[in-house]
Amino acid sequence: MATLPIVQYEEKILETVEANPVVVVIGETGSGKSTQLSQMLLRRGFSKIAVTQPRRVAAVTVARRVAQELDVRLGEEVGYAIRFEDRTSPTTRIKYLTDGVLLRESLANPELNEYDVIILDEAHERSLNTDILMGLMKRLVKLRSSNLKVLITSATLDGDKVSKFFADCPVLSIPGKLYPVEILYSKERPPNYLESCLKTALDIHTREPEGDILIFMTGQDDIEKLVSKLEDKVRALEEGSCMDAIIFPLHGSLPPELQVRVFSPPPPNCRRIIVATNIAETSLTVDGVVYVIDSGYVKQRQYNPSSGMYSLDVVQISKVQANQRAGRAGRTRPGKCYRLYPSRLFQDEFLDVTVPEIQRSSLAGSVLYLKSLDLPDIDILKFDFLDPPSSESLQDALKQLYLIDAIDENGAITSIGRKMAELPLEPSLSRTLIEANNYGCITEALTVAAMLSAETALLPGQRQSKIEKKRKHPMPNLPDGSGLGDHIQLLQIYECWDRNDYDIGWCKDNGLQVRGMLFVRDVRKQLSQIMQKIAKGPLDIRAHGNGDEFRRDYRNLRKALCVGYANQLAERKMHHNGYRTLNFQAQVVQVHPSSVLTADDLGKFPDYVVYHELVATPKPFMRNVCSVDMRWTTTVMNKLKTLDVYKLSGGINHAEEESERSLPDLPKKDVQVAGAVNDSESRIQAARERFLARKANK
Ligand code: ADP
Ligand code: MG
User: pTM (2 decimals)?
Assistant: First the structure.
C-alpha cells in the first residue's frame, strides 16, 4: 500500500494545495487518488473533506476501503452518503458522497461551510452533476477564498481545459507506474460479442500464464449470461489440465456483499475472471488483472430533447475509454489487452472522447436546481459550463418545468418549484407529491414515489425481461392495479405488505425482493419527513387504505399524478390502442407490454394516460402508465397553448428579441409546436365530444 504512486508525491501535492484554491490532480487509475488524497489532507489538518463520486457503488466501496485503511468504523470518522442512504455521523471527517448528494447539500447550505476541502473525483466521467458542481465551485472559491480548497481529480481528463476553466489553476500529473500492455486486435467485429468474450477468456485461461482476466461487457444482463456460461465451461475443463478459476460479476446493481467479494484476495493457484461493466474502467480497481478483454461497447442512456424520449443504447466506446480499459492490464506487470474489434475501426470510427452526460440528458432536474439556488450571478442559459448543453435541451427543460408549475411564464421559479427542488426525486414525482398533499392522498403518493424510486430493486430475477414478466403476471395473490395502471399496482402491492405487518416472509412468498421492499419502506419514510418540512406542518397522513372516499377508483391520486406528469400525458388515437403524446412534439407511442394497464370489456384502452418514462426499445413505448380523466388535463392543455419559450428562458429582453423572432435560425420547432397545439386543441374538442356522448349513453 505504501508504494501507491500518489503517496510519494504527498509533500508536493499538499504544498500546491496550500498555495492554490483549486488544483487539478491527474493520475493513472489505481494510483490512489480516491483513497489516498483525502487521507493526506486529513493528516495535514484539514477538518472535513468531501469527496464526490459520480457512481453510488464507488462512493460506498471507496469509503469502506478508507475506513478499513484507517482502522475506523464505517460511518464514524469515514462515512458515505448516497441518495436515500446516509452513513455519516457528527464525527465524520472524510465523507464520500455522490455528486448528486453534494448538489442537494448545497441547496440547504449554498456555501457548503461544513467542508474545508471538496474533492470532485472522477471528473473525467463528466457526469451531469459533476459538471454542474464544477460551475458552482468556480463561484464558491471566490466567495470562500480564505477557507476552501477544491481539488479536481481525474484519470484521463483534459487537464488544460479544466485548468483554463479555473483561471489557470495548477495541474499536478502523478506519473503512473504502468507496465507495457500488448494490444491484440480482432480481424473483424465478431457476429456475437458474448460468444467471442467467452472464447477469448477460455483461450487465455487454458493457454496463458497466471494472472486475472477482466472482461468489459455492456450490462448486467450480458454479464450474468457470460458468468453462467463461463462457470459451465470452466467446470467442464479436465481436472488438472489448468489452474482453477473463480468468476465474479461486477456492476452497479450488485448487492454490497457480492461487490466486496471481488476485492478479497483469491485462493492460491486460482485465476479470477471478472466480468464487469465500465465501472471497472476507472471507478474501481481490482488488483491482479493481467489480461483485459474489451468488447468495445458500452451501454449509454441518451435523452432526445426533440422527442422527450430516452433510449438505452449500446454504443461504441471512445478512444479514451478503450485506452483506459487496456491500461487495467498493466498495473502490476506487463499485460495483454484483447480488443474484439479491428484496429482500423478503433482508428477511424471511435470518437476521441466520450460525449459528456450534460449533452445527452434531460436537464429539467438540473435547471430546476440551478433556478432554486437563486444566485444573482447565475443565468441558466449563460451558466458557466465546461461544455454547454444544447439550447434545445435547455428549452426542453424550461418547457417541462413550466408545464408542472415549477417556473412561471417569465421563467421565474415559483413557490411550488422551490418545494419541488427540495425533494430528491424527478420533477414529475416531486410535483405529484406536492399536489397529493392538497388532495388528501399524500399517503398513497408517497408510496408510489418510493416504489418507483426503488423499482429495480423490487422484483426478483436479475434480468429486466424477467422483471417485466413478473410485473405482467404477478404472483397470484398480488394485486393487479385494478386495470388502472402500474402506479396503482405498485401502491396496492405496498398496501398489501403493510396489511401483512411488513412481514419479510410475505415478500418471499410473493416473489418480491426483501431488500428492495425494505428499501422502499425506508425511502418512503425519508420522503415523508422531507414533505413534512416542506409543508411546514404535519401532513395529512393517514393509515394506508383507510377508507377515504376516493379509494374506489384512486381518483385523487390519479389526479395528482396527472398534474405531476403534465409533460408526460398521452391521448389514445381514435379507433386505436396506440397513443399520441400531448407534449410539444406529438409522438405515436404504445403502452409497454410489461404494463398492467388493461383494456375495458370492449377491448378499448383508456382515452388518456400519463406515463413515467418514454423509452425507445426500439419502438417508442410508455413505461409505467396510469389512466387519467380527460377533465383533469384542461389546465395543462391551456398552458401548452399559451407557452412562449422566449419568455421562459428569462433574462431575455423581449423588445430587443422581437425582431429576431422571424429569423430562420430560431427554433423551427416552435412553428410546429403551434401546429401541434392547434391540433391538440381540436383533438381535445373531439375527445370531449366523445366523452359527453358516452356519458349521455350511460
Ligand atoms: P484511483 O482513485 O487513483 O483510481 P484508488 O484510490 O481507488 O485509485 O485505489 C488505489 C489502490 O487501492 C488500488 O490500486 C487498489 O489496489 C487499492 N484499493 C482500492 N480500493 C480497494 C478495495 N476496496 N479493496 C482492496 N483494495 C483496494
Ligand atoms: Mg478513483
Answer: 0.85
